[in-house]
Design goal:
It is built from 12 helices and 15 strands. The protein is of the alpha/beta class. The chain has 2 domains: about 10-130, Rossmann fold (3-Layer(aba) Sandwich), CATH 3.40.50; about 135-305 and about 335-355, 2-Layer Sandwich (Dihydrodipicolinate Reductase, domain 2). The protein has a 9-stranded mixed β-sheet with strand order 14-13-12-11-7-10-9-8-15. Strand 2, helix 3 and strand 3 (about 60) form a beta-alpha-beta unit. The chain is globular, with a radius of gyration of 21 Å. The mean pLDDT is about 95.
């Protein structure tokens, strides 16, 4: 279908917490600037879709995304549903002629990711996974340092995000049929995507990992301030995952993530190591050495702009100006291949080759 040359027509599929807090505010901001018009908000829950649609200038609430896509000729559709719906909603929107921004993870399995990419290519539409951490100023600064060659030959990376107690008590994160897995596919996908991107997006060749469920199905778990209590008797995903990933040219990455672990505090860090220097997220900096000293470079100020805001505005600009997206869908497919391999490795108790 031919698209209008005026304001971009935007639709949201899924209006839960991530849409309400991290997507819709920035689409409304673009609407106020006269660049887009939000015409549809879809959600299975009536009060959510009506509440969010009412805060837009002219959005219509929908219960069914197929009906919404049939009624309105969208330029952009933003998919913010549970993982299970990412692929069907994105593919439907792409086939309807819209460019698609979809929340992480890209989908539930590699085959779904491949179907999404095929639909985007067939319709010559843009497809991007909302990996907002790439858009944060700290990530951009580290990417700049790495691009300068200051690390020398990168050989390995380590990434870790351990919540002491932080199992999502809202939505359906704890149900395998809805989300596939726990922290590996929830927050691990963030850390892996950022880490692999900073390394230069090498091709993964194998992964070995193990996932554990040690806390989530226990009724005695204290879960701190993480939403409404979930039902532990139906919790069937992991709450901890650890992995070693091998890439072409001998590069490696180690990773561990948890929703609950007996650590001293929440831990979020990442290191990319080269033979001339290294970079880290927490503490943020560039680390190196000379013949008589160990050195570090830090920054007194970095732009605090929310990465979600940057990603929404980036995707909008890519559609407006026909520019390539920062998060290429093929890169997100590779991350999904790693995730699938880690789950398979844990099940089979051996390393899995990634093709």
């Amino acid at each position: 279908m031919a698209k209008s040359k005026g304001k971009l027509k935007v639709g949201l599929i899924g209006s839960g917490a991530i849409a309400r807090e991290q997507h819709l505010p920035y689409w409304r901001e673009l609407e106020a600037e006269g660049r887009v018009e939000i015409l549809g908000v879809c959600d299975l829950i009536k009060v959510r879709r009506e509440t969010e649609a009412a805060q837009c200038v002219q959005a219509v609430p929908y219960e069914n995304f197929d009906k919404m896509l049939a009624d309105i000729d969208f330029d952009i559709v933003d998919v913010c549903t549970q993982n299970r719906v990412h692929a069907p909603a994105a593919i439907a929107a792409l086939k309807a002629g819209a460019h698609v921004l979809v929340e992480k993870p890209m989908a539930m399995h590699v085959r779904e990711c491949e179907a999404m990419i095929a639909a985007a290519k067939a319709g010559k539409r843009k497809l991007m996974v909302a990996q907002h951490m790439r858009f944060e100023a700290r990530a951009e600064k580290l990417k700049e340092i790495i691009a300068s060659g200051a690390l020398g030959n990168i050989y390995t990376a380590e990434t870790k995000w351990l919540r002491r107690r932080g199992i999502p008590g809202w939505g359906v994160f704890h149900l395998k049929k809805e989300s596939l897995g726990g922290p590996l596919i929830d927050i691990g996908v963030h850390m892996m995507d950022l880490c692999v991107w900073l390394m230069g997006s090498p091709k993964p060749v194998a992964a070995s990992g193990k996932v554990y469920r040690m806390f989530g199905d226990r009724k005695d778990l204290f879960n701190a301030d993480w939403g409404v209590p979930y039902k532990p008797e139906v919790f069937d995903v992991e709450d901890y995952a650890v992995a070693l990933v091998r890439f072409e040219k001998g590069l490696t990455m180690t990773m561990s993530v948890s929703w609950a672990a007996n650590t001293h505090d929440e831990i979020e860090n990442m290191y990319i190591l080269g033979d001339k220097g290294g970079v880290g997220i927490n503490p943020l900096g560039y680390f190196s050495a000379d013949h008589s000293s160990l050195n570090r470079t830090t920054w007194d100020w970095l732009d605090p702009e929310d990465g979600h805001r940057r990603e929404v505005r980036h995707f909008c600009a890519c559609v407006e100006k026909d520019l390539p997206v920062m998060v290429k869908p093929e890169e997100s497919l590779r991350i999904q291949k790693i995730i699938d391999a880690i789950y398979e490795s844990s099940k089979k108790n051996r390393e899995i080759v990634i093709k």
